[in-house]
Amino acid sequence: MSEPIVSSFGQVPVRIFEARPAARTPAVLLFHGLRSSADTLDREARALAAAGMTAILPDAPHHGVRSSVFLKTMPDTATREGYARLLAIFRESRDEIPSLVDHVLARGHDTVAIAGVSMGGYIALAAAAVEPRLAAFASLLGSPDWTPHEGEAAAAAGAYAAELSESPHLRPEVFAPRPLLFLNGAHDVNVPPGPARALAERLCPIYERAGAPDALMYRAYETGHFVPPAIWDEMVETAVTFLGRTLLARVG
After folding, report:
1. CA angle 244, 238, 201 (to 5 degrees)
2. Which helix (H) or strand (E) holds 92?
3. Looking at residue 2, what is its pLDDT?
4. How far is Cα 20 from Cα 5, in angstroms, rounded to an integer?
5. Helix pair angle (229-251, 42-50), 10° resolution
């Protein structure tokens, strides 16, 4: 497979792994984790491309090529200030999604999905509220609930009332009947799986009434947040299969 195309969508740097043939292939926006960058997901992007989907990897705000003092001086997310900055990154990333979709469509892709790992999973789920053109969502080790769950940040949750009111788990109706995948670690203390499981259970009857029960999937693996290679390979394969089944069927 050829090397990625390094480009930008407006002010957002992206790495593009094109499926062959590239024309009219479905595209997947794939977001990385906190304190990471787009170039850490090359292998996952290649798996998407090998399955017939063009993977487009943005650098999230303050990350990668966009690295900034905001992130470099960010305290641990268990602190009040650290979590406030994390919420700011969620919101900034979410608000860029419509422009990114505009650029993807302008490239000739008429089907666009979104996926992400850890922080990227939060971003992918947050996008549902702002972008109706997204065809599917896949969250790996992410959560739909922005509520802090540890340390000083959890004790000060009331200070984030405005931000937390935008948490995706409060608006389940924005997902159905679009395909939605949650893959979490059953023993993850960094991103507990409970909120993803709870939202999937809440959405299940909604998807059934919409005639799309197979479009919703939740799976928890026997792992924490730092996933052993064999389990990670299985998670990626599950996500690629789920997205491929959804997106390639639309193209076909």
Report:
1. 100
2. helix 80-106
3. 73
4. 14
5. 40
- The number of angstroms, rounded, from the C-alpha of 247 to the middle of its chain's C-alpha atoms is 16
- Quote the CA–CA distance of 240 and 237 in Å, as a whole number: 5
Residue range 155-174, pLDDT digits in tens: 999 999 999 999 999 999 99
Helices (H) and strands (E) in the chain, counts: 8, 8
Q: Which residue has the higher pLDDT, 248 or 70?
A: 70
Q: Is the pLDDT of residue 46 over 60?
A: yes
Q: What's the CA gap between 59 and 46, in Å, rounded?
A: 17
pTM exceeds cut of 0.90: yes
Separation between Cα atoms, residue 203 and residue 243, nearest integer Å: 19
DSSP string, 192-232: -SHHHHHHHHHHHHHHHHTT-GGGEEEEEES--SS--HHHH
The Cα–Cα gap between 54 and 19 comes to 5
Question: DSSP secondary-structure letter at 175?
Answer: T
pLDDT score, position 249: 80
Number of residues assigned to the chain: 252
Task: Give the chain's domains with CATH numbers.
Answer: 5-251 (3.40.50.1820)
Confidence class for position 57, pLDDT limits 50, 70, 90: very high
Average of per-residue pLDDT values in the chain: 96
What pLDDT shows up at residue 1? 57
Indicate whether 23 pLDDT > 70: no
Asked if 154 contacts 148 with a C-beta cutoff of 8 angstroms, the reply is: yes
